[in-house]
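Hi everyone, sorry if this is the wrong subforum. Our group has a chain we'd like a structural model of before ordering constructs, and none of us has done structure prediction before. Sequence below.
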Amino acid sequence: MSSLKVGHFTLDNAANNGTMMKSLERMLREHDVAFDATDRKIMCFAHIINLCSGQVTRKAENRDDDDDDSDSSQSDDETVASSPIACACNVVRIIRASGMRRDDFMAKLDTGNSKGLFREEGVRITVPPKELLRDVRTQWDSVYLMLRRLREMSPVWLYFCRI
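Answer:
Right subforum, don't worry. Here is the predicted structure as tokens:
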């Protein structure tokens, strides 16, 4: 056996990663390098947490699958009404879908800031001009980032929903 040592690989659950590890094991054996594909594969903790949090979110929203285009007994309006995350996604999608809507939102934000219309707990605040963020399925923390940005922009919503 060679004195060459190969370390561990941190991977997610994708089947192609298991296939790659088995292929690597075969290739290394041909060169007399000891390598156990099963022992050398470490599951990515962040990926496991992401999968778990996705399941919790879907259960909280009464969604059993993660396919956004699935047939459901609920209409789109009913789904949005029953799910705060779906509602947030819908608001962001609607505003970002049109350049005119984005411009109108930013104009209202500028107007509110310049006229001192935004308040939190009775104190005048300035809301930073930022884009709304979308939920992106492949970006693990995108739901959190989207909700945090919506919360940051809440004085705009609260003021302009009243008038």
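For your construct planning: Residues 75-162 form one domain. Helices lie at 15-30, 45-60, 76-82, 84-96, 99-115, 142-152, 154-162.
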